[in-house]
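Thread: fe (ii) ion complex, take 2
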Amino acid sequence: MSLHLRELNRRGVVALAAALGTGLAVAARGLLLPDRATAQPGKDNAEASGGGEDVSATENLMREHGILRRTLFVYADIADRLRAHAGKVDPAALVDAAKLFREFGEQYHERTLEEQYIFPEVRHAGGPNEKLVEVLLLQHQRGREITDYIQAAGSRGSVGGDAEPLARALASMARMYHAHSAWEDTAIFPAWKKTQSKARLDELAEKFEEIEHQQFGKDGFDDALDRIAKIEQAFGLATSTSTRRLRFRNRAGWPSRAMVR
Ligand SMILES: [Fe+2]
Ligand SMILES: [Fe+2]
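Output below.
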């Protein structure tokens, strides 16, 4: 449980700087953004066909990010709650969130799709994205360490004495992985797509669906959607359309109008 997040973050920054060489810009609060590892999306290769929903390979990857980002929003909200009143956080729901991130994010999305099908080809193509892939791999590893930590913390049945370190872990994970998925969506996936023929993209769209069914024994995306919805509900963050207006039940974290007056 002795995960020294501050040190890990510092080392992450050093590794990132080393990997990107001089081509980086430093943004606020220690978040590093590459300034040129940004291959532009090319002409729209034809999207995949076949299968019930006609989900292309890149759409498949990006909607998986949607599930992971929803988990990160839960993490960020829990971090705020831990800092405010630790006793109100349901440790079982926190473990469910970390388990979803592990199974759907780390074991399937990262290890099976990105690390086997996407990253090797982007690396092979060279250019600035080759170095960005090194950073993304480090972040995959860092994320897995943090997931271990969150699972262990939640499995103890209550969060008390370690509320602040746990809050830091959750907030750090949310910040790192929001950037991670944004870089993949805007630089890596478009770069990868440009290296593929239409026929190969179609083939891989089907392959990714096949892998998902093999790995989860059912539609993994639909299953993950159900799981994140239940987790959001457990934390009072579920959305409701019952009044035809989408709204968060808990609006405490919304920016207030007073902020911009
Ligand atoms: Fe990734
Ligand atoms: Fe990803």
